[in-house]
Amino acid sequence: MHVEFDRDTCVGMYQCVAEWDAFEKDRDAGKATLVGAEETDEDVFSLEVPEGAELDAKFAARTCPVDAIRLYDDDGEQLV
């Protein structure tokens, strides 16, 4: 399972930060940051979800008010 985060779409509500510790507040930019993620496209970051963090990742994706977080299974099918 992996997560993709579109930082350009992020509006800095930080709900993801409350749900999953892989996200941190970047108050200078007014956006969240996906810690340890690789930039795969301009301002789009990808990270493998560690074992045991799947539920937190789902909550983070579901709480994002602008759908900047997408979660995919190992076959590439979008879950959230």
TrEMBL record:
GO molecular function, one term: metal ion binding
Superkingdom, natural source: Archaea
InterPro entries: Fe-S_cluster_ET
Keywords: Electron transport, Iron, Iron-sulfur, Metal-binding, Transport
PANTHER family: FERREDOXIN
The protein, known as: Ferredoxin
The species this protein was found in: Halobaculum gomorrense
Native organism taxonomy: Archaea, Methanobacteriati, Methanobacteriota, Stenosarchaea group, Halobacteria
